[in-house]
C-alpha cells in the first residue's frame, strides 16, 4: 500500500457542496475530458500535481473525522477525473473503510468499466455523476469525448444498487435546450438509485487559469445563467 503514490491537485478539509454533510474533498490530478467550461484547467495534465502516499492522505482525512461524523459527512474524491488513478483510490478507500469513513466519488464516468472500476465502486457509498451532456454530438463538442461511457456508468450504478446524485452544469445556449433536458429527465427516470438531481449554474471563475496556460477560453461570450434559467431547468427535470 505504501508503494502507491497518488498525484493530487489539492485538498479541501471542510467541503459542504460535494455530497452530504461536511466532507474532506480530494481533487485528483489528471483528466481525459477537455470541457470548454472547466474551472479546474490546471488538473488536466497528469505530470502536474503533488505526490502523496495513502498514509499521507489518511492522516489528513482522519483529522477532519469529528466534523464528518457529526454531520454524516465523509470523503469525496473529485478532480480532474479520479478514475485515472484507480489503484490508488482502491487502496485509499479500503483503508478509510477501516475507519468507517463514508466514501463518495465525483466522476464523469467517462472511463470504461473494468474489474478495477467495479472493485472501487464496491467500496463507494455514493457517486456524484456529472452528465456533461445527454446529446452525444453536443457532448463531443463540449468535452472532446462522447457520452456513451457515462451513460453506461450510470446504468451500472443503478443495476448494482449504488446511490447516485446526478449533476448537470447549466450553460445557456449549450446545456439548457428544453428537448435535451427532457431527454435527460427520461434517462434519469430509467435509473433506480438516483437520490438527487442537481443543477450547477455555469460560472467563468476559472477563466484566468486558461489564460495562465496561454489558451483561449472558448466560452468567453456565454452569459451566466440567471435564477430564472435555473428554475426553468429544474421544472423541466421535475426537481
Structural overview:
The protein is of the alpha/beta class and 239 residues long. It is built from nine helices and eight strands. It has helices at 54-63, 65-70, 86-97, 115-122, 136-143, 148-159, 178-188, 207-212, 227-237; strands at residues 5-15, 23-28, 50-53, 74-78, 103-107, 126-130, 164-170, 194-201. An eight-stranded mixed β-sheet has the order 3-1-2-4-5-6-7-8. Helix 1 crosses helix 3 (86-97) and helix 3 runs parallel beside helix 4 (115-122). It is globular. The mean pLDDT is 95.
- Report Rg: 17 Å
Q: In sequence order, what are the helices and strands, one letter per element? A: EEEHHEHEHEHHEHEHH
Categorize the overall geometry: globular
pLDDT averaged residue by residue = 95
* Derived structural class: alpha/beta
The biggest beta sheet, please? 8 strands, mixed
End-to-end span in angstroms?
A: 42 Å
Low-confidence stretches: none
Widest sheet, order of strands: 3-1-2-4-5-6-7-8
The tally of beta strands, per DSSP, is: 8
- Classify the helix fraction into a percent range: 25-40%
Strand content: 15-25%
Q: What is the number of helical segments per DSSP (H or I, 4+ residues)?
A: 9
What topology does this entry show?
Blueprint lengths: L4 E11 L7 E6 L21 E4 H10 L1 H6 L3 E5 L7 H12 L5 E5 L7 H8 L3 E5 L5 H8 L4 H12 L4 E7 L7 H11 L5 E8 L5 H6 L14 H11 L2
Parallel strand pairs: 2-4, 4-5, 5-6, 6-7, 7-8
Antiparallel strand pairs: 1-2, 1-3
Helix pairs in contact: 1-3, 3-4
